[in-house]
Please model this.
Amino acid sequence: MLTIFAAMFPTTAPFILVLSLLVTLVLLFYYLYFFARLAFFKNKPENTLPGLSPLSTIVCAKNEQCNLEKNIPELLQQQYDAPYELLLVNDNSEDDTRHVMQWMSREQPKLRLINIERKTKESIGKKYPLSIGILEAKYDHLLLTDADCLPVSHHWAAKMAGAYRPGIDIVLGYGPYEKHPGFLNKVIRFETFHSALQYLSYALAGHPYMGVGRNLSYKKELFLQHKGFASISHIPGGDDDLFISKASTRSNTTIMIDPDAHTMSVPKKTWAAWKRQKTRHYSTSKYYKPKHQFLLGLYSLSQFLFYPLLIAAAILYSWPVALLLLLIKSAVQYLVFSGAMKKLNEKDLVSWIFLLDLWMVVYYLLFAHTLWKKEKKTW
Model:
């Protein structure tokens, strides 16, 4: 059968083989030049001398009553050997968020509340309440997370703030999702890992382009220097990735991936809910810097084309050659991805690497439309 197909397309076979080889080489370049940096990364010792800087942790909430009741007590138990405040910004919530926050603050001197009431119920995104929180923060060092995120340890704040060094203005953290049974949970967690693999590795390579609001730290001075979100105020999203893309440089950004520095979130339970969430997240990628769009686009295109081209090369040219390319690519990918998964405390995903790598072909088809989809203006 393979011989028949090859005979039908004699001039196409070499071209398909060359494309397969090029795509394989591109993927190997990303694995070895970018992603290996995370796989073999070692956290530097925390900055304990002369001590931790005063820290303002900011949480913006909109209709988050249940999450606040569960997560805020944990945020208040952070062991931080320096002045520390937790600033909650309530953005026009329609549930009992305001009353819950007021109740929690009665006996918590570290907890400060800001209530934002807008005349219109339509929100323009998270940037406005976050800007208010940053401007009201007492301290220069800021630590950001979401109302539905829970630090995995009482040392989260100290670990993230301990990553600062002279010249560092931004610390990128990792925010995984809880482990639950089912393939959807594996997909969500692998996609989260895969995104972190890219933005953390790019930062280590001197090309930072984004962070995630679930676990992110930067200086108030940096925020003011770049006039906050003024340049991206017309975009509903981007309070984390687009601001970092604008404010980060090769030298002012570092990462913190210590297991105690993670924040944990509850994953979506249905495919439809997860798809809506990812569509909203990816809608800002079209605003990245051109070089980042190119690097991310080339990788995604190569990942998408690898298996179809490999199958075509096996049919039209030579299956042993196609198998050799698959084995080389898979061996390097396994070495790098498994190392990075262990660094990010996602060890159980190691056995799923190849199946979920195949799944990424479907994933790109699902979310290709976000490149031109109009952003939703609520958060």
User: Anything to note?
Assistant: Strands lie at 55-61, 84-91, 111-116, 141-146, 149-151, 170-172, 216-219, 253-255, 263-265. The first helix runs from residue 2 to 8. The two ends are 54 Å apart (CA to CA). The chain has 13 helices and nine strands.
